[in-house]
Each structure stands twice: as C-alpha cells, then as structure tokens.
Design a protein that fits this description.
115 residues, alpha+beta, 33% helix
Length: 115
C-alpha cells in the first residue's frame, strides 16, 4: 500500500484508512452521540496485522479530531488507543467533557451488541 486515504463511512460508523488498491488497512469504529450534546465517540481502533507499525492508527485518530473540528463538535473517546493518542496530542485533541464521556458510556450500555 503506497498511498493511504481516510474516508468516513458515517452510516457504518467507521473511519477507514484505505490504500490505493482499495484495501482497508485500518479503521476507527465510532458512533455519533446526540444527547446531552452531539459528539463523535470512537470505541475501537483496529489496524490489520499486515499494516501495523505504519502510523495508520495515529492518522485515523488525527483525522477523527479534524473531522470533529470541521463539524464543530467534540470527541468523547472511549477507545483506549484514541484516549492515549489524545493525551499525547493536546494541541489537536482537547480534553473530553466528563458529562459527554458518561453519556457515551451509558449509550454503549444501552446498545451492547453494537460494538
């Protein structure tokens, strides 16, 4: 995979890193929280084994925050990787509102089969 593009498949709840060959090398699975405020909530980051160590997870996390900024909404990360990435990049990833994090956890408990 020489070039990687990131595409948002909002309907499926996935931000995908796709190579020029069409292969999905990695993804962040997320949902859009609507209440108490709209937010993007990443739940899992997955990079295919053949593509590990190439910076794909970091590129996905960076694009997730860029997407949220373009939409004017916050990110409430539940994915352990995104939480760690955000802590290392405070200039790009502002801290999440504790109320949004709590609401996101409540949403996951209400929809246990979603992720």
């Amino acid at each position: 995979m020489s070039e990687t593009q990131i595409r948002d498949d909002r309907a499926a709840g996935r931000l995908e890193a796709v190579g020029d060959d069409g292969e999905v090398a990695g993804r962040i699975e997320y949902f859009v929280l609507e209440s108490p405020a709209r937010a993007l909530v990443p739940v899992h980051t997955i990079v295919e084994p053949a593509h590990e160590g190439k910076g794909i997870a970091g590129s996905l996390a960076r694009e997730l925050y860029a997407l949220a900024e373009r939409e004017g909404i916050p990110v409430a990360p539940l994915c352990p990787y995104v939480v760690k990435w955000a802590a290392r990049h405070p200039e790009t990833a502002p801290p999440a509102d504790p109320a949004l994090l709590s609401a996101a956890k409540d949403w996951l408990r209400a929809y246990p089969g979603r992720f």
